[in-house]
Structures are given as structure tokens and as C-alpha cells.
Amino acid sequence: MNRTRHSMRRMLAPYVLLAPGLLWLIVFFVLPTIQMFLYSVSTGSVDFGYRLTWSFDAFTIIPKQFSRQFANSLIYGTLATIITFLISYPLAYFIAFRGGRYKNLVLFLVIAPFFTSFLIRTISWQIILGNNGPVIGLMHAVDIFRAVPENFTFMGEPVAVVSGLVYNFLPFMTLPLYVALERIDIRLIEAAQDLYAGPWRPRGWLYGAVGGAILGGFIGFGIDWDIPIFALVGAVLGTIILGVFVSESFLRVTFPLSLPGVFAGSLLTFIPALGDYVNATLLGSPKTQMIGNVIQARFLESNDYPIASALSIVLMVGIIVAVMLYARMLGTEDLSGGAML
Amino acid sequence: MGLMGDDETGDVWQAPISRRNLLKRGGAVAGLAGVGAFLAACSGSSATPAPSQAAAATAAASAAGVASVAPSAAPTQEVPSEGPMGNILNFANWPAYIDVATSGPDNGKSPTLLEFTKATGVKVNYQEKIDDNNTFVATIRDQMKAGLDTGWDLMVLTDWMAARLISLGWISRINQANVPNCQANLVDSMRNLPWDPGNDYHYPWQMGMTGVGYSKKSVAAAGMQPLTKIADLWNGKLAGHVTFLTEMRDTFGLGALKLGIDPVTITLDQVNQIVNDMQPLVSQGLRFTGNSYLQDFANGKVWAAMVWSGDLASSGSADDVFIFPDEGVMVWSDNMLIPRGAQHQRAAEAMMNWVYQPNIAAQIEDFVYYVCPVKGADAEIKKLDPPAASNPLIFPTPAIVAKQHAFKTLSQDEDTAFNNAFNTLMGS
User: Fold this and answer.
1) More confident site: A58 or B65
2) CA–CA distances in Å: residue A328 to residues A67, A82, A331, B82, B296
3) B323 with B376, same domain?
4) Do A47 and B425 touch (CB under 8 A)?
5) What is the pTM of this model?
6) Which residue of B has its CA nearest to A296?
7) What is the DSSP string of B44-78?
8) Is residue B37, in this structure, part of any structural domain at all?
9) What's the whole-number mean pLDDT along residues B126-155?
10) Chains A, B: CB contacts under 8 A, how many?
11) Do B299 and A130 touch (CB under 8 A)?
């Protein structure tokens, strides 16, 4: 009798422990998701109420009407992820291995902008990139050949939106990378060096040139600027970075061990960037609207709940599929490995 | 279905026809015809109705069918508002919409509100929270629907939105005993509007026009003559430095006038025509804003824009001007409403009553440069600021009144279709 009760308790314990989290998920995630799905197949208006009609009209018009905004989201989100990675990796590497006694200070500096409101931080980019701002002012000042057109502008262009995204999501990439790199046992790298791991050239040059050209070309394409120039710059930078700075020990030891951080960081950047609408609202124009802007406008401005809900569902399913593919590609079993800060 | 909430699909759906008819009859159009009539009266040409006003009236009449219908969906219970005044009034309004002292100890504060506090003991929490009708209403829709406190006791919304909210029963009935000034001083042309014939739910705050504003310096620097037409906004020299309004009726209204379409009878086909006409500008970087065009003018980001009539005069630099374009202007009224569930209804009524004193109305008008709905304010403004009495923004001339156009009262289906087209144009 006593024994059965004891084993009952043991059986129930995990569920009891799970209950608060589970309940939270059901109330704030599962139910709203079901509600959202029901809205997406309803007809009516927000003022007069909705009727569940199982009409899939909202889904059928999406490819026709909103493919451009989906494409914008995908391109800007991907660009933001790649660029934050390119900035964050050297930064995290530096903090983890060379930070020394300034480690905590530098880490603090990475998250310091978070002490200001997200909106204020984004609006400040309006000033930085604005027509009367420092960046364009400097460009005109150093432009002795008058190559920059008089009415040149960043605001409202993809480059402004991507800049905003990169800036706002940088810490979400840097911190997981830092955690992953910081955990690496330095003796593994020393061992690799003892085993004659040298510089990576000449193959590094080749990979750097090709990879840099592709990446640069994609960035140029994404922000709608001159693709060949970006490809060329990418190729040069890639050659230098991979050819000169990357060693075999980094390639075979450090980088593979930091993959959980890469995985976590890119998810933490890519997923919110894909659905973000603040940057495109404040820094963009109608032609740079992302899918988040559409969802926001349809929910709050035109009160078209069915379309807004359908778009949210498509976005959600799209993200889940993309993440699953990515996880398989990167072969990371430990999905949250780098996210454990 | 359980999750959808039966209250949302309840009684409203059982009588959709009467509501739709109500909206049709209700006709913000007729209300706007009233604005036209008032403006005509103001400028001393009340004998001959302006063309736009005649058109609006005809359209309203044809849409109406029945002359006047009481709002059937309005709440039946009288909200008791005899009680104590309370000590605070939460007032949501649009930017640049009240007088502000520019010197002295009250610099930056509104004399009208300070005097109100002195007279009644009620402090005013005045917030410039409304930049767009839809966006603002979205923030309080659920509370109004449920009859809960929205955090606001008084709010100012444009005629078409006011008519819609009143017909939904989301607005508190005004206790007329508390607003004798409103009853006495509301201009005749704004009385008996089909969507609230007895002013049971609203009193106008201001009326105004939508036209074109530009910075003289920037436009000259771009190598252009001073602007005179809506079509000038399409000029390639201004590309990337133009904004339109996020209010669909304003942007499509001016877009219609540019193409020679009468906004009062606008159809979906014509809307698509307007969208096609505006699409190239969007590709060149056209943006859509609410009152924030004031900041854009101030920092030189915008050189020319669709703007509301009083803003640049009250809050722009001397270099920024409003013009009544050749093709015409849109007219509208913004109205004081007490949302259902308001905690300080008595204080809200006191405020309505306060701003309907001719001297107070003149004081506001002399700052905001919109068209005033209060009888006797013209005489008061002459004492205060004689040149203002001949300002066409406050007292439009007959030539301007002839240019005024109202936007069609949309059915639910049209509203959805027009908004869809508008959002698509805005890239969302």
C-alpha cells in the first residue's frame, strides 16, 4: 500500500513539476494559436464580429499579394544574420580569448545599448543615416570626384532597414558565440598546434576569394546596390581573412567546437529579424516593407484579422520548416547548446 | 467555434442589414455637407450653396433614402453623470490641436486647459496620442467593446470614425444638462447630422481641410516654381521628399481630385486608378505619415506633402505653407466623444462645455488655425487677433468653399476593399 503510493508519487512528480510551464504554454501559446487559426478561416469584420466559415480565401491570396514582403523579410533577415555573424564572431573570439581582465567590461559594452528603449535605439539610426546625418555628410565631404549623387539617401532604402536589424540583433549573436567560444578548452588548440596545424593557405585564399565573392554579391543584391562591386570587395576581404588570419587549428578545432553558439546565435537573430516590423517602419519606406509590417497593418490598421492571422500562420510554419532544415544541415543535436548563458 | 467568443457574433449579426443601412443613411457625407454649409455661412455666401456641398448633399440624399434615422444600435441606458466632477480628465487629442503659450510662466502649456483647471478644479491629462483614426481606435477597441475603462474620458475622432463608433454603441451618451454652451453655440450647419441628429453623442472639436503643404525654400532649391496643384507632388524633382497621409480618405480623396474624380461618388475602379497613379511615387520612395510630417518638415526630410490645413500655420516654420490646390481640397470634422466606460464622464462634459465658450474657442482657433464650430468665435477672435479674422484657414473665402469636397460614406464592403487597396499601396 505504502509502496504503491510512493511509486504513484514518483510517477506524478514530473508532471506536477511540468504543470506551471505547461499551463503557461497552453494559455499563452496553444490557445492563441488555435484562436489565430480560427480567425484565419473566418469572415466578417472586427467591428461587427467574425463568423467561422472555413473559408481559406485569406491563404489563397497570400502568394499573389504578399510575396514581395515575404521575399523582403527573407532577404533582410538572412542578410542581418550573416552580417551580425561576420561582426560578432571576431568580436566574441576577441572577448573570449584575448579579453583578459577587460572581459566583463567589454561584455557589458555589448549589452549596454539594451539599457535604452528599442524604439529610441532605432530612431537614432534615422539621425545617423538621415540626409543631414553624419554618414552622408562624411560621404559628401570626402567625395572629391562628385561620385555620390546630390540626392543620395539611405533612409527608406533596404540598406537602412538591414543596418537597423544588424544593430538591434547584434548582442543576440555575440553572446551565444561568446559562451560557446569561452567554453573551449584552450589545451585542445595547443594540442592541434603541437600536431603541426599551420596556416590554412593556399587553399584558404581560394575559399576566401570564392566565398567572399558569393557573400558580397548576395549582400549587394539584398540591399539593392551594385552587385559586382560588392562581390569584388567580398572576394578581396575573404582572401585576406581566410588566407592570412585563419589557421588550421581554428578550422579543425575552434570553429567546430563553437558551432552550437553559431546555431543558437543565428536562430536568435534570424527568427525575430524575419518577423520584425519596427526597423522597416522607422527606417524603411513602402518598398522595403517586411511581412511583419503587413501583419501589423492588417491587424491594427485595416483590422483585417483573417489575412493577418493567415500571414502569421504562414510565417510560423515557414520558420519551423526553415529551422528544422537548418538544424539538420548543421547537424547539431544540442539545439540550445550555446543559448545557455 | 467556442474560442471565437459568442458575443462577437451575437446580436450584431442578427441585424446586419439595419446597421448597414444606418451607416449608409448616417452619412458622414451629409455631415461634411454640413461643414461646407457652415464654411459657406462663415464666409458670408450662405445664400448660394457651394457646388461640392450640393454634390455632397445629393449623394447623401440618394444614399439615405430615408431622411433621418435615429442610431438604432445606440445604448439605451442614460449614463448617470450628475455625480461629482472628480479631479482628473484624461483627454486624447491629435498633435498641434490646442493653444500653447509660447512665453511667460506657462510657456509650453495650454492656457485653455490651465483656465479650465482653475475654473473646475479638474486637472487635465492632455495627451497628443492620436495620429491616425484606425491606429488609435485599435488601441482601445476591445475595452470599448466590453464597456470597460479605456483610460480616456474624452477623445477626438474624425466624422466617419465617430459615426461608426456611435452606431456600434461604443460611445457614452452626453448629459445635455451639463453642456448648455454646446447646445447654445454649436453652429447650425453641424446640427442634425444624420449619424447623430440630436448631438447625443458628439460635439465637433474642429473642422478642417486636407490639401498640399510645402517648404518654400526646399522647393525653390529643387528648381521648382511655387506649388499650386496636387499634381505638383508628382513632379520628379521632389522624388523621395514627399509624404502622403496614412488616412485613407485623405490620400485617396486628394488622389481622386488630381485625376478629376469626385471623391463623394468614388468607386473601387476609380480607387484602383488612383493606386496605379500613385504606385510610381512609392517606387521612388514616397512615404505615408500622420501628423509626424511636422517633424519631417522641421528637419528638412520632406519638402512637400499632403497635409491638414492648420498644422503648418500653427506648428511649422514660417517657410512652410499650406495651399488650397487648384484641383480642390477635402473637408472633414473631428469630434469630441466620450468612450463607453469612461471614468470621468462629468469632467469630459465640463470640458466640452468649456471649449464651447466663444472666447475660449477663439483662443484655441487663434493658435491651431482650423475651422471653428462655435458660434460667436469670429467676433471674439477679432478682439484677440484682428488679422486672424481674415485668415482663409480659419474663415475660408467663397472661392475656397467652392473647392471643398467630401469623401463618400463607405459601406462595410467598400471600406474593406478600399482599405485593402490602400494598404497594398503602402506596401503592407
Assistant:
1) A58
2) 26, 19, 5, 69, 48
3) no
4) no
5) 0.77
6) B428
7) T-TTS--HHHHHHHHHHHHHHSSS----TTS--SP
8) no
9) 93
10) 105
11) yes
Are A49 and B240 within 8 A, CB to CB?
A: no
Distance from CA of B115 to the nearest CA of A (A): 35
**pLDDT value of residue B332:** 94
Same domain flag for B225 and B296 = yes
Q: Determine the number of helices (DSSP H) and then strands (DSSP E) in chain A.
A: 17, 2
Kindly state whether residue B20 falls inside one of the protein's structural domains: no
Which one of B1, B138, B427 has the shortest CB-CB distance to A289? B427
- Put simply, whether A150 touches B (Cβ < 8 Å) is no
Residue showing cell 603541426: A196
**Which amino acid is located at A58 in the chain?**
A
Facing A130 at nearest CB: one of B301, B423, B425: B301
User: Would an 8 Å CB–CB cutoff place B236 in contact with chain A?
Assistant: no
Counted residue by residue, chain A has a size of: 341
- Per CB-CB distance under 8 Å, the chain B contacts of A31 are 3
Q: Looking at the complex, does the CB of residue B268 fall below 8 Å from at least one CB of chain A?
A: no
Interface contact A289, partner B, CB < 8 A = yes
CB-based contact, A54 to chain B, within 8 Å: no
Tens-digit pLDDT profile for residues B342-372 = 999 999 999 999 999 999 999 999 999 999 9
Does the beta-carbon distance from A285 to B426 stay under 8 Å?
no
- CA-nearest residue to A283 within chain B is B287
Q: Same structural domain for residues B277 and B418?
A: yes
Q: Where are any strands of DSSP class E within B359-410?
A: 404-405
Query: Mean pLDDT of all residues in chain A?
Result: 88
What is the rounded distance in angstroms from the CA atom of residue A251 to the CA atom of residue A249?
A: 5
Banded pLDDT at B82 (limits 50, 70, 90): low
Query: Does the beta-carbon distance from B428 to A35 stay under 8 Å?
Result: no
CB-based contact B394:B365 (threshold 8 Å): yes
Show the domain range for B188: 88-207+333-391
Q: Confidence class of residue B44 from pLDDT cuts 50, 70 and 90? A: very low
Closest by CA to B8, choosing from B141, B135, B139, B157, is B141
Are B305 and B169 within one domain? no
Based on the fold, state whether residues B420 and B350 are members of the same structural domain. no
Place of cell 512615404: B287
Q: Which residues of A touch B287 (CB under 8 A)?
A: 156, 285-286
pLDDT of residue B14: 33
Contact B301 A155 (CB under 8 A): yes
Which alpha helices (DSSP H) does B214-291 contain, by range? 216-221, 248-258, 268-283
**ipTM summary value:** 0.75
Q: Quick one: DSSP state of residue B325?
A: -
Q: Look over chain B and give the mean of its residue pLDDT values, rounded to a whole number.
A: 82
Structural domains in chain A plus CATH codes: 62-339 (1.10.3720.10)
Q: How many domains does chain B have?
A: 2
Distance CA B322, CA B305 (A): 10
The verdict on residue B418 lying in a domain is yes
Per-residue pLDDT for B1 more than 50? no
Judge if B163 and B311 occupy the same domain. no
pLDDT at B7: 38
Q: How large a percentage of chain B has pLDDT more than 90?
A: 59
**pLDDT digits 0-9 by tens, B157-167:** 999 999 999 99
- Residues of chain A positioned with their CB less than 8 A from the CB of B132: 301
Q: Do B419 and B338 sit in the same domain of this protein?
A: no
DSSP A241: I
Does the CB of A46 have a partner CB in chain B at under 8 Å? yes
Residues B271 and B342 in one domain: no
For residue A151, give how far its alpha carbon lies from the nearest alpha carbon of chain B (Å).
Answer: 9
Q: What is the CATH number of the domain that holds B240?
A: 3.40.190.10
